[in-house]
């Protein structure tokens, strides 16, 4: 079929749909958008995940527990021209009220969710960064050869915080958002 004929038919069919089935057309239009949430997205893997999803035409909710750090990350993306597909919302996965507020935002403002990236997390250990840097400078090994026991400390409060964020925070976020997926 010639290109001009295809275009003519496409226009005619679109006009017909808009005239007789406007609700269907509007519903189809909104369904064709895809929405993602990335937790802990003000830096690191989370921020890069937002960038990649947005670069692929997905509308992404960039979330961060600290509003200032989140908005700074949002501004970084704005500089690379991605703000059209990125919105910011505060989210501390360790805070049930914050998770509920995000779920409400998605439900009322976006209507649905397609992708949840449960990225927020902490290492749950203390790092003696001065000793680590000194060891690096004196050629103390790389990757698997590093003796981490010299630089890392594990304490009960840090382990508890890690469980609260990495396990219960992810679980809480999934439970609140899966019904919208
Ligand atoms: N990079 C690795 O080699 C590696 C290896 C194993 C697992 N991981 C896991 O992969 C994920 C990303 O790693 P990454 O290297 O990108 O880590 P990262 O640079 O430390 O980023 C972690 C992100 O999680 C956020 N976060 C921490 N607690 C939170 C909370 N309660 N609510 C919401 N956000 C919170 C941090 O926010 P703040 O800036 O406010 O702290 C930050 O934005 C983490 O879960 C990490 O544990 C990474």
What does this structure look like?
By secondary structure, this protein is α/β, with parallel strands linked by helices. It has a single domain (22-180), classed as Rossmann fold. The protein has helices spanning 3-20, 22-31, 44-55, 67-79, 96-110, 129-137, 156-177; strands at residues 35-38, 59-64, 86-90, 115-117, 126-127, 152-153. A four-stranded parallel beta sheet has the order 3-2-1-4, sandwiched between helices. A two-stranded antiparallel sheet has the order 5-6. Helix 1 crosses helix 2 and helix 5 (96-110) runs parallel beside helix 7. Bound molecules: NADP nicotinamide-adenine-dinucleotide phosphate (NAP). NADP nicotinamide-adenine-dinucleotide phosphate (NAP) binds next to helix 3 and helix 7.
Short structural description:
This protein is α/β, with parallel strands linked by helices and 181 residues long.
Please describe the structure with a list of short key phrases separated by commas or semicolons.
181 residues; alpha/beta; Rossmann fold; four-stranded parallel β-sheet; two-stranded antiparallel sheet; binds NADP nicotinamide-adenine-dinucleotide phosphate
Mean pLDDT: 87
Strand content: 5-15%
CATH class: Alpha Beta
Q: How many strand segments?
A: 6
Q: How are helices and strands ordered from N to C?
A: HHEHEHEHEEHEH
Distance between the termini: 40 Å
- Rounded Rg: 23 Å
Profile the largest sheet.
4 strands, parallel
In order across it, which strands form the biggest sheet?
Answer: 3-2-1-4
- By secondary-structure content and strand pairing, the structural class works out as alpha/beta
Helical segment count: 7
Helicity range: 40-55%
Would you give the CATH topology?
Rossmann fold
Q: Ligands in the structure?
A: NADP nicotinamide-adenine-dinucleotide phosphate
Low-pLDDT segments, ≥5 res: none
Overall tally of structural domains:
1
CATH superfamily membership: NAD(P)-binding Rossmann-like Domain
The CATH architecture category equals 3-Layer(aba) Sandwich
General form: elongated
